[in-house]
Amino acid sequence: MTPFVLTRWEPENSQFWQQTGRSIAWRNLLISIPALMLSFAIWMLWSVVVVNLNKAGFNLSKDQMFWLTALPALSGATLRVFYSFLVPVFGGRRWTAISTALLLIPAVGMGFALGDPQTGYPTLLILALLCGLGGGNFSSSMANISFFFPKAEKGLATGLNAGIGNLGVSLTQFVVPLVIGVALFGSWGGAPYQAEGAPPIWLQNAGFVWVIPIVVLTVLAWFGMNDIADAKASFADQAVIFKRKHNWLMCWLYVGTFGSFIGFSAGFAMLTMALFPNVNPLTYAFLGPLVGSLTRPFGGIVSDKLGGARVTLWTFIGMVLAVLALLVFLPREGRDGNFMGFLAVFIAMFALTGIGNGSTFRMIPVIFLTERTRAAFGRGDAAQKQAVVEASRESAAVLGFTGAIGAYGGFFIPRSFGTSIELTGGVQAALYGFIVFYLSCVLVTWWYYARRNAPVPC
């Protein structure tokens, strides 16, 4: 065993937690958070780069640009399916360092490709898919952190990890517009593109600016984090979650919360440009993800006190009402629409998705601990202790897997907007579809978790 491997880890033992566990857990969390933030920054790079492509000499259609915003979510969601099982196989420290280092591939690749307007569209599509490496990291990061904290603090820990990590979306949408307007790296960063009568633009800086932070966080993860010996498990050990009904139900709900957060984050700038062409979307694009990221820890904290199911139920009801309100402010034939109303409702929806992200992830450990301890009831102390271990392992796998499935919303929402505009000339059809889906989430939450005598109240 290396000094980085924790051979004894009992966060539910209050004496161990107070004397030893808490400081170790928080050190791992404080390294995990910025690493995850960088991952989200890389994952959502195209959401802000795409609106600057034609200014940098590229000549793409709106549909082509919607594809570039959607593909990172598709690849990221697919990678999450695999990443969600890798922490117990490789160890949290090792995999955090490796997966962070892999972010150099899209960062450097975009740096070189975006500096040359002759770069072909297929190359841009490949780079968009590679940005999914950042999206995959969420599942492994959340699974890893869930092992470190006791049940009473899992909501706070996972909320902080995911919530502050989600700030990477706002970070990239805030930083990129700033760095592409200056020669940040001098001659090392390449020449700018300058159209006639327009200021120079160094779009390559959108990739290069992340290289040094990625290297720093890789080193910090390798030397500052820990692997937990008891958290080791093969894929076969974790595959039991595919037989658990509540795994699939929570996947459905997380598509509604996180899928909406990442989908709106990816598509908001392009949607604004399509519906309100006189508005600069980059002025406002970072606000919604910022609010959604900040409310996620709040969702976890409130759920620790009130119960995750109750918070999730009211979150989905609020999202239905918000989409109905959004329809009022859209442009229609003979009417320009109201951008400030549109923006205000979108920010409210981002806030709700953040709360829902925190509350759903608070539900998962409670659900699986309840299920496993029920199954072990009356079989003795050893069976109860083993049930807690199994619940922790299954919860970690489910946290990662639901994160994977939920991320597909980041693909379907931008594509829904693009398809709706292409077929009907507006986004109303897509929004009506969202309302139906959110209503289904209300029913699932109420029936299985929130009503009186629910099968698994949480």
Automatic annotation (TrEMBL):
<feature type="transmembrane region" description="Helical">
    <location>
        <begin position="429"/>
        <end position="449"/>
    </location>
</feature>
<feature type="transmembrane region" description="Helical">
    <location>
        <begin position="65"/>
        <end position="83"/>
    </location>
</feature>
<keyword id="KW-1003">Cell membrane</keyword>
<comment type="similarity">
    <text>Belongs to the major facilitator superfamily. Nitrate/nitrite porter (TC 2.A.1.8) family.</text>
</comment>
<dbReference type="GO" id="GO:0015113">
    <property type="term" value="F:nitrite transmembrane transporter activity"/>
</dbReference>
<dbReference type="InterPro" id="IPR011701">
    <property type="entry name" value="MFS"/>
</dbReference>
<feature type="transmembrane region" description="Helical">
    <location>
        <begin position="282"/>
        <end position="299"/>
    </location>
</feature>
<dbReference type="InterPro" id="IPR044772">
    <property type="entry name" value="NO3_transporter"/>
</dbReference>
<dbReference type="InterPro" id="IPR036259">
    <property type="entry name" value="MFS_trans_sf"/>
</dbReference>
<feature type="transmembrane region" description="Helical">
    <location>
        <begin position="121"/>
        <end position="143"/>
    </location>
</feature>
<dbReference type="GO" id="GO:0005886">
    <property type="term" value="C:plasma membrane"/>
</dbReference>
<feature type="transmembrane region" description="Helical">
    <location>
        <begin position="201"/>
        <end position="223"/>
    </location>
</feature>
<dbReference type="GO" id="GO:0042128">
    <property type="term" value="P:nitrate assimilation"/>
</dbReference>
<keyword id="KW-0997">Cell inner membrane</keyword>
<feature type="transmembrane region" description="Helical">
    <location>
        <begin position="251"/>
        <end position="276"/>
    </location>
</feature>
<feature type="transmembrane region" description="Helical">
    <location>
        <begin position="342"/>
        <end position="364"/>
    </location>
</feature>
<keyword id="KW-0534">Nitrate assimilation</keyword>
<feature type="transmembrane region" description="Helical">
    <location>
        <begin position="95"/>
        <end position="115"/>
    </location>
</feature>
<feature type="transmembrane region" description="Helical">
    <location>
        <begin position="396"/>
        <end position="417"/>
    </location>
</feature>
<feature type="transmembrane region" description="Helical">
    <location>
        <begin position="29"/>
        <end position="53"/>
    </location>
</feature>
<dbReference type="GO" id="GO:0015291">
    <property type="term" value="F:secondary active transmembrane transporter activity"/>
</dbReference>
<keyword id="KW-0813">Transport</keyword>
<keyword id="KW-0812">Transmembrane</keyword>
<dbReference type="GO" id="GO:0015112">
    <property type="term" value="F:nitrate transmembrane transporter activity"/>
</dbReference>
<keyword id="KW-0472">Membrane</keyword>
<feature type="transmembrane region" description="Helical">
    <location>
        <begin position="164"/>
        <end position="189"/>
    </location>
</feature>
<feature type="transmembrane region" description="Helical">
    <location>
        <begin position="311"/>
        <end position="330"/>
    </location>
</feature>
<protein>
    <recommendedName>
        <fullName>Nitrate/nitrite transporter</fullName>
    </recommendedName>
</protein>
<dbReference type="Pfam" id="PF07690">
    <property type="entry name" value="MFS_1"/>
</dbReference>
<keyword id="KW-1133">Transmembrane helix</keyword>
<dbReference type="InterPro" id="IPR004737">
    <property type="entry name" value="NO3_transporter_NarK/NarU-like"/>
</dbReference>
